[in-house]
Amino acid sequence: MKRKSYTQSLADLKSRGIRLTPQRQVILQYLKETEEHPTAEQVYQKIGEQFPGISLATVYNTLNMLKELGVIRELSYGDVSSRFDGNDSEHAHLVCEHCGQVLDIASPPDEALITQNVQQAGFTLSSYRLEYYGTCASCHEHATYQNEHAS
Q1: Is residue 14 located within the same domain as residue 76?
Q2: DSSP structure class, residue 35
Q3: Strand-strand pairing, 130-134 and 92-96
Q4: Which of 36, 39, 91, 105 has the fewest C-beta atoms under 10 angstroms from its C-beta?
Q5: DSSP H or E stretch at residue 75
Q6: For binding Zn(2+), which residues are annotated in this chain's numbering (predicted)?
Q7: Based on the domain organization, do 94 and 83 belong to the same domain?
Q8: 99 annotated as a binding-site residue
Q9: Last residue of a domain, one of 53, 88, 123
Q10: Is 3 in the same domain as 16?
């Protein structure tokens, strides 16, 4: 499935009778057009530039609504703040264990995910979340530089 654009997502929500205030539209547009995976606080800061009076509660409520409608995804990482992903297609993530950066990557074909064990259990997949953890290029480069110049 290809990632839905802001325009496609907006049309989909309107066709479902969802009330779209200007604040909701700006939040949706930001998430659909960014490659980043911001926290609610980061969304609040970004949207606050356009809507200085917007409350953090409005941002949280809008993110929750968009998540429940399946337009965005929430990525939880234990005790760290959740991040939000405007990419509604099936894809995997690279997560840097040092700086926390999250990147989208293409996921393996469904045949690789639906293993014989899944089939034997009689389980029907509706969705999945695939993440790879490690060190991003920037952190790796920084660590290599630090090691080379250590006394």
Answers
A1: yes
A2: S
A3: parallel
A4: 105
A5: strand 73-77
A6: 96, 99, 136, 139
A7: no
A8: yes
A9: 88
A10: yes
Residue 139 labeled ligand binder: yes
Question: Domains in the chain: how many in total?
Answer: 2
The residues that bridge with 85 in the sheet, in sequence order, are 73
136 annotated ligand-binding residue: yes
C-alpha 111, offset from chain centre:
24
* CATH, residue 64: 1.10.10.10
Any binding-site annotation on 68? no
Range of the domain at 37: 1-88
| Predicted confidence (pLDDT) per residue in 7-21, tens digit | 999 999 999 999 999
pTM for this prediction:
0.81
DSSP annotation of 5 reads P
Q: Decide if pLDDT at 143 tops 90.
A: no
Among 62, 88, 114, identify where a domain stops. 88
User: What is the spatial distance between Cα 32 and Cα 7, in angstroms, rounded to a whole number?
Assistant: 9
